[in-house]
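Reader question, answered in our methods column.
A reader sent in the components of a multi-part assembly and asked whether the whole thing could be modeled at once rather than chain by chain. We filled in our standard form and ran it. Here is what they sent:
COMPLEX SIZE: two components
ENTRIES:
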Amino acid sequence: MRFAGSVIKTKAAVVGRRGVASRIGVLVCALGLGIGTAPAYATSTQPAVAVVAHFQQTLITVMKKAPELGFKGRYRVLSPAVLASHNLKFIAQITMGPYWQHLSAASKAAFVAVFTQLTVATYATQFDGYSGEVFKETGAHVLAQGDVLVETTLSADGQTKAVLDYLLAPSGSQWKIINIVANGVSDLALKRAQYTEVIRNKGFPALLATLKKKVAQLSRPSKAS
Amino acid sequence: MADGAPRKRVGWVRGQVLCLVAALLLAGCATTNGAGGGVDPWEPMNRRFAVFNRTADRYVMAPVAHTYIKVMPRPLRSAFTHFFRNVAYPGVIVNDILQGRLRQSASDIGRFVVNSTVGMLGLFDIARHVGLKAHKEDMGMTLAHWGVGQGPYLVLPFVGPDTLRNTPSLLVSVVTNMMYYTGSATFTAPLAVLDVINTRANANASLRYVHENAVDAYVFTRSAYLQHRNFLIHGGHLPLKTIEEMMLPPMTAPTGPPAPAQPVPPDHHHTKAGVRPSASRSPP
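And here is the structure of the entire assembly that came back:
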């Protein structure tokens, strides 16, 4: 696993000690890991904004054609859009918390595969109709780590239904979504809290089985219309 | 005597609220940053109440709500929702004032007046169309504004997720609700029942989402509730720093006995807690 200088940040540095000492600690930590590359700080929010806008436009298209597409059609259209705009491998890794590094390569691959299916299936289930919804970008910021926050709202009938904040980080030559905060609820934190709890109590195979069951439930004809 | 009864009730409730606030100030100080930083020290009890609530919902509230949705036309349900929000809206105004949000309180007073009159006792949300948008404020948010700590997470029977800090809201929301002052139980009791059913019907989509997507419904609800409350406390705009920190959820080492199927690695306490793995940082 690679660790890059711009993302090395101890929890203490994030949540508490924000002084010079912690910053030096972070620097030492980064140097100690032999990471000398310059951080990829965002210089413009525009590329990240474009990724979010394109994905949301795909969602609107799918919502408008929802009945004729059906669940399978929505899944088929959304799958490439989600893969192109989300860094699902990274998100999957974060949701596993400290357990990730102890999984075998096969387990990691199996988890990423089912996590990807679940993510697309959730989108296909939730965006199953259109009632005049409109996405609107309300702001974009470069964060301290170089990530970009894109703030949007989902409105219908002139009323804001949800505040959706997207966090994007560079992935290869593209910007990709690594977290979505909906009305203050972080998808990443929500999944991670659950997944680590299930692993702690029942083990990784139980989590994998539960996620597969969720995918099957979401794909059932009664839910998938 | 007729005038005295409501005053007595208000006096009693005021006393209870003051007692609760005093207890809360102590409890909040004691528990906010308690040992281990656990937000749910009463989890065993909370889980039992969560199971009770789910069972009660499954066998009583859900069937009633589904029937209600079937028989009650959507416009009527919408009108009831506006009505119940409007009669409870003085609670928002009181908390606006308690938080020193005077401009917002003026807007909310206007909203309440417009909807109570032109909006026919709140059945129609006319205020929205004249730019008086609705706000969400309650006693828990006021206490947070005053610096009171969140305190432990709670699941209350028939109420659902809550925090110790928010418990005074249960009383304050009653005494700031206009229905409390009608003085006639024969009038308010059926309305209160309708309010509960209507609220449950409105929560149908959210509860279905939890049911369909939660891997662990209890943890899902707790995490979502606490995060959303924090969002409301910040007026619907989380500070950038908070959003940034969400990229690094607490990396507390797992506690408790390891699951048989996945033994906790012996060095799990020495994992690079807090280090975010790379999402590939090469420049785009």
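What stands out: The first helix of chain B runs from residue 4 to 31. The first strand of chain B starts at residue 153 and ends at 156.
Send us your own complexes using the same form.
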